[in-house]
């Protein structure tokens, strides 16, 4: 699964962040299994937190927790050589800012100012992205919608580039669930009309589908949901990390003529239903007992 892991985490980086997509028949890709929840219980065993993920003993992700709070999370950005570190700022017990900075020169930085509820859901967010050139830098504001059960259903992002005063572009992501897990995120990108509304006539769409969930516990489930949600606003291929269970396949359909990717995944679990490795023992999850 080592190769699959890299595809799983990052395949969308090749096609997702600044690429747009079209309305193709791949929208109709259907789930084959997955029931959401941890055998009906969405609460994982307490006092355990993901510390790192390694591939062939090389760290791919690492998380630092102090006094029960996430301080930093470091992870590879796609299949690139860039590692991003997200540094978390708190207002009391709530996360108020997360800044993601790459380790290589030329990496775009992303600073999110957020408001989160008691469940760790973000309900307002602003992102300031600073690139090497002003024209590629932008400010985004997000309208985030949940249903009455608390499930994330839609995110509308409005962007203004290079110091412009008006919003010019949008990204709208609509979510479909299977049980409690995000099965699909339809990510539509385009320009805004003169009245500031999304112009769907020329918009393109990428489908991110996280399929065939198991009934075990996501390794990310005891880390703050808002941390992964913020990064997913920049990298939508990682939205599966806010689901309670683990996808066993990932399907990403970018706009034509780019090719869709499909990756199968597998896990070995411990007695508490947490993933500890892939079946080849190349990819390993290490947890810290708090």
Descriptive report:
By secondary structure, this protein is mainly beta. 8% of the residues lie in helices and 44% in strands. The protein is built from 2 helices and 17 strands. The protein has helices at residues 2-15, 225-234; strands at 48-55, 58-66, 69-76, 83-91, 94-102, 109-116, 122-130, 138-146, 152-161, 169-178, 181-191, 204-211, 249-253, 261-264, 268-269, 275-277, 283-289. The strands form 2 sheets. The chain has a 15-stranded antiparallel beta sheet, with helices on one face. It is globular, with a radius of gyration of 18 Å. Residues 1-40 have low confidence and may be disordered.
> Which regions are unreliable across 5 or more consecutive residues at pLDDT < 50?
1-40
Helix/strand/pairing category: mainly beta
- Assembly state: single chain
String of helices and strands: HEEEEEEEEEEEEHEEEEE
Biggest β-sheet: count, sense, barrel?
15 strands, antiparallel
- The shape is globular
Count of beta strands: 17
Strand order in the sheet with the most strands: 14-13-12-11-10-9-8-7-6-5-4-3-2-1-17
Strand content: 35-45%
What Rg is obtained from the alpha carbons, in whole angstroms? 18 Å
- The helicity comes to under 10%
User: What is the CA-CA span between the terminal residues?
Assistant: 28 Å
Tally the helices.
Answer: 2
Average predicted confidence as pLDDT: 86
């Amino acid at each position: 699964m080592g190769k699959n892991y890299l595809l799983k985490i990052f395949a969308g980086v090749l096609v997702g962040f600044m690429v747009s997509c079209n309305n193709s028949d791949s929208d109709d890709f259907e789930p084959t299994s997955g029931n959401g929840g941890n055998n009906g219980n969405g609460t994982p065993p307490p006092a355990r937190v993901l510390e790192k993920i390694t591939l062939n003993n090389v760290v791919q992700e690492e998380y630092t927790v102090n006094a029960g709070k996430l301080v930093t999370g470091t992870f590879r950005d796609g299949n690139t050589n860039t590692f991003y570190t997200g540094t978390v700022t708190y207002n009391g017990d709530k996360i108020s800012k997360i800044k993601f900075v790459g380790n290589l020169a030329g990496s775009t930085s992303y600073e999110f100012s957020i408001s989160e509820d008691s469940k760790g859901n973000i309900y307002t967010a602003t992102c300031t992205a600073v690139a090497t050139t002003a024209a590629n830098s932008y400010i985004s504001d997000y309208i985030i919608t949940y249903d009455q059960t608390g499930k994330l259903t839609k995110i509308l992002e409005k962007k203004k580039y290079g110091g412009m005063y008006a919003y010019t572009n949008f990204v709208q992501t609509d979510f479909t669930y299977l049980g409690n897990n995000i099965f699909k995120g339809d990510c539509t990108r385009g320009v805004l009309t003169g009245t500031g509304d999304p112009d769907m006539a020329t918009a393109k769409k990428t489908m991110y589908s996280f399929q065939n969930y198991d009934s075990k516990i996501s390794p990310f489930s005891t880390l703050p949901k808002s941390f992964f949600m913020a990064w997913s606003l920049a990298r939508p291929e990682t939205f599966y990390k806010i689901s309670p269970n683990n996808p066993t396949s990932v399907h990403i359909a970018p706009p034509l003529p780019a090719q869709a990717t499909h990756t199968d995944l597998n896990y070995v679990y411990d007695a508490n239903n947490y993933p500890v490795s892939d079946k080849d023992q190349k990819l390993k999850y290490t947890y810290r007992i708090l």
